[in-house]
C-alpha cells in the first residue's frame, strides 16, 4: 500500500479518501489517438457519462488548475494545489504533508520524476526521489477524484453493469470499475458508480480499496460546475457526514502559462 493511500484512506475513517489507480492522462485519446469503445450496456452508459462530462472536448484543455481539499467534521485538514500542463504532461503540485512539511514539486508525469523543494529548500538525491514518488501519488489520487467521468476509458480499466440500486428513493444504474493488475498504484481498488438515469452524471460512488476488509464505503458526487468545456463534481461527502472531499479554484485554460511551471 502506498503512503498516500494510508493518509487518504482516513478520509472515511479520519482524514481523506482513496488513492485510485490510473496511468493515462484523461481524454488524450479523445482526439490524438484513435480508439474504439466496446459495445455493451456498461460501455454505452459510460459513454453517456463521459460525453456529458465533456470527454470529447477535453483535448481543448491545455492547462488544468484545481485544489484538492479535505474537511473533517467541518475542519480543513488537508489541501493540495495542482497546475497540470497537459501539453508537456507535467504538473506543479504544492501540499503540506502529515509531518507538516511544505512540498513544492514540478512533476514529469510520464517519467514520474520531479524536482522541487521541501520547506523552501531544494532537495536532491534520495530526498528528490521521495518527493517525486509523493508528487506522483498526489497527482494520481487527486486527478482521479476530479476527472473520473472523463477517465472511464483509460488503458487497463474494465467496466461492468450491475443491478440497479436505489439512491434517494430512485433506482440508479450502477457501473462497476476494476483494473488490470499493475495499472497505476493500487490496481486492486474497485468502484461502483451510481449514475443518474436522466442526467447521466455520477451521483455517488462506493469504493473498496486494495486490501480493504471492511464493506465498501459510500461518497456523494455533487455540486457539478463547468470547468471550461468540462462539467465536473466539486463536492464529495461521506455517508457518515463527517468528511467532505472538495475541489476548489478549478480552472481550464486553452493555453499553458509557462511561468506556472518554473521552479526558482
Task: Outline the structure in words.
- The N terminus is likely disordered.
- This protein has one domain: outer membrane lipoprotein receptor (LolB), chain A (Clam).
- The relative contact order is 0.21.
- The longest helix is centred in the middle third of the chain and has 23 residues.
- The protein has a nine-stranded antiparallel beta sheet, covered by helices on one side. A five-stranded antiparallel beta sheet has the order 7-8-9-10-11, covered by helices on one side.
- It is α+β, with helices and mostly antiparallel strands and 264 residues long.
Short description:
The chain has 3 helices and 14 strands. The protein has 264 residues and is an alpha+beta fold.
* Model regions low in confidence, pLDDT < 50 over at least 5 residues: 1-34
From the 3D structure, determine the CATH topology: outer membrane lipoprotein receptor (LolB), chain A
Q: Give the topology string: H per helix, E per strand.
A: HHEEEEEEHEEEEEEEE
Rg to the nearest angstrom? 18 Å
Helix proportion of residues, in percent?
10-25%
CATH architecture: Clam
The number of distinct structural domains comes to: 1
Could you tell me how far the N terminus lies from the C terminus, measured between alpha carbons in angstroms?
33 Å
Structural class: alpha+beta
The largest sheet, given as strand count, sense and whether it forms a barrel, is: 9 strands, antiparallel
Shape: globular
Q: Give the neighbour order of strands across the main sheet.
A: 6-5-4-3-2-1-14-13-12
Query: What quaternary form is this?
Result: single chain
CATH class: Mainly Beta
Helix count equals 3
Number of strands: 14
Beta percentage is 35-45%
Output mean pLDDT. 86
